[in-house]
């Protein structure tokens, strides 16, 4: 069995085992940390579809993370204040039902990714990076200056949203919800990479000229990848907002975009379980190093620098070596 | 909307534009010649501002503070160029983004460690503190006019440098064909360090000058950095002319938009709604401008296809 | 012997392209008939790459038209022309370097099938695509290296893979840009022999500098100098043409 498969199995079991152990030891805070890791990993898996598979360096993925978060925030806020979002021409009421919120988050993020992607993918290289960054900023400033949903102060949701038949307030239950979604998306992402679409997209990353010469259009492949990627990250945003019961413009910030990238890179860009490793490592650092020093970001910075300069394949690259050709 | 207010805002827009130009010029040179996308540029802006604030507080001299800003930023630039940046020239853009992002973390937290989280104050020197009366009876802060003057002078200086000096020729040749100038015997390592330090110095100067009007605090550089990116995207990477025009466009759009849009909306909305819609749109206006330019010219107004 | 009366599979008519004051392509017309190898030769700077780019759809001509099998492809993009039946190989091997040989070939077959927007079934297990890919690999002699990473291939093997990918497209026309580039003496001989048999698949418009290969393979040769075709005919005719000798083969005018 390949080293990477063994490592992936380990990473897959890491979070549920941690959560269950924490449950047994009655440490709900650790369960929450594992949940946070799962959700951030999900955001990273989304980015990895565009970045790792597609080679699209999107420095504005926080745009989708924030849109998912605000989809949740706006819908839940209206539900908890019993006022509809809109009365005419269409009656739209708020909701605190997770499945509905997730659907809205996915659709909104996908549409935004379609729009942003259609514009940004007309550029390439450095322009693309800067343009995606700029779009993220645009949404950030918009969220700050739109007073209806808290502006700079953000929006609090008093009670966690509901999932039919489950007690979502229970930390372990919510962890299971988040982890199940992560698992399903990982399954989907894995299949995507091996499917015709994935082969063509990754080929476009390696050599766009070659892809064109076999009659496939890189732009279309990349746009579809960008939309899927945005949708997944948006879903993560909705879950994140639900975890914290709080949404703020920070979810749109370039620092958030950078952090999502860090999860992917630390774990190993392009590797299916890279974001899981990266997010877990990040949460670990945040709580261990962060407990020791309030300036722990310096260490994060140095770690990131070292990884970029000397260990480009991230943790998975270091442990499992060169990627195995999919058969 | 009075004429006086309009002129004031236009001047503010120009002032904000020339400061953006100092950032953008460095960024576009570094990218044009070295092919490097440098997110740490905002940190160099911040270093300049902090150095200026510290020296001004210690010596009371604004001039010394500016010199300190230039020196500190250039020095910081040299340091990171020689240790980290030069390993990135051959790497792909993702690596450059991540490595320079890592440096933002290091610089920001490092600065916070030494100076704390509260803003420092840098005062406008007494000699430049008052208003000046412009033709038409308009009063405008002298300091801001000085900033405009300094910015335009530097723009002129950069144009001269690129067009008339040997370094300028090396820069232009480097933008056209990086490998070739190495083959022609130009000391690439020194040239790159020089250009990086020059860009850093410009950023540091901008940080110090603006630090006197706004506050000097950790994280002040990144919003400016991102705006500078927008400027380069609009103006075209590698073009100083594009950086200047782009910067003025962005500065004016930002300043005038935030004043004019709420007023515009006040015509058919009540005041508070007008302000919120107006300022929201104003904050997005720059990005809408950028998107507009990209629709017609994906490589910016003066960039190469 | 090719049938002179059949409609050409590639018909380039009166292409013109200028870059400012430089006329890179000057009223160029070329045809490619079924089963033939038509070589395009010319000194460096003659405008061969510019011409190839216009035929492939990478560059818009100022005027003139390009037709594949009777269809006017002038308004079509590179991608569309590939789908219309243009199999192109590049002067510098253009392959997905992280992929295995088989993956590159499957990519070609995938492009040809057009069914790329599929997100669930593993592509490397699709029998149709694998079969198509293996056929091409067998034809070029790379079948044994199907699992080798492309970056580990030798230069000659990469040139072979270039051709294999073009084969998976089942093209109507091959457009080959210096397939011998970088191959040593024995490699060139092998490639020459291979290309000779390839014309049965589809006719080849061959841009080449290797004169031995050109004279061994070509049914017709066209000579491009300063953007203009100065001579076109059989190998014997071209060798004898005084203009060609002066312009290209470097001989002085026979006294």
Q: What is the H-and-E element order of chain B?
A: HHHHEEHHHHHHH
Number of separate domains of chain A:
1
CATH hierarchy, class of chain A: Mainly Alpha
What is the chain-wise order of helices and strands of chain A? HHHHHEHHHHEHHHH
What are the segments of chain B in which pLDDT stays under 50 over at least 5 consecutive residues?
Answer: none
Number of helices of chain A: 13
What does this entry look like structurally?
The complex is a heterotrimer of chains A (327), B (305) and C (255). Chain A has 327 residues and is mainly α. Chain A has one domain: ABC transporter involved in vitamin B12 uptake, BtuC, CATH 1.10.3470. Chain A has 13 helices and two strands; from the N terminus they run H-H-H-H-H-E-H-H-H-H-E-H-H-H-H. In chain A, strands 1-2 form a two-stranded antiparallel sheet. In chain A, helix 3 packs parallel to helix 5 and helix 10 packs parallel to helix 13. The radius of gyration of chain B is 20 Å and the shape is globular. In chain B, strand 1 and strand 2 form a beta hairpin. In chain B, helix 1 packs antiparallel against helix 8 and helix 10 packs antiparallel against helix 11. Chain B has a two-stranded antiparallel sheet. With 255 residues, chain C is an alpha/beta fold. Chain C folds into two domains: 170 residues, P-loop containing nucleotide triphosphate hydrolases (Rossmann fold, 3-Layer(aba) Sandwich); 78 residues, no CATH class. Chain C contains nine helices and ten strands. The longest helix of chain C has 14 residues. Chain C is globular and about 55 Å long. The two termini of chain C are 36 Å apart. The relative contact order of chain C is 0.17. Chains A and B meet through helix 5, helix 10 and helix 12 of A and helix 4, helix 9 and helix 11 of B.
List the SSEs and their pairings.
The complex is a heterotrimer of chains A (327), B (305) and C (255).
Chain A: H1 3-24, H2 28-53, H3 62-80, H4 98-120, H5 125-145, E1 155-156, H6 171-194, H7 196-206, H8 208-213, H9 218-244, E2 246-247, H10 254-267, H11 274-292, H12 296-310, H13 314-320
Antiparallel strand pairs in A: 1-2
Chain B: H1 3-34, H2 41-59, H3 62-83, H4 93-115, E1 131-134, E2 138-141, H5 142-164, H6 166-176, H7 178-183, H8 188-211, H9 221-235, H10 240-265, H11 271-296
Antiparallel strand pairs in B: 1-2
Chain C: E1 10-19, E2 22-32, E3 37-41, H1 48-56, E4 63-68, E5 71-72, H2 78-84, E6 86-89, H3 101-113, H4 127-140, H5 155-168, E7 173-177, H6 185-198, E8 204-207, H7 211-217, E9 220-225, E10 228-233, H8 235-240, H9 242-249
Helix pairs in contact in C: 3-4, 3-5, 4-5
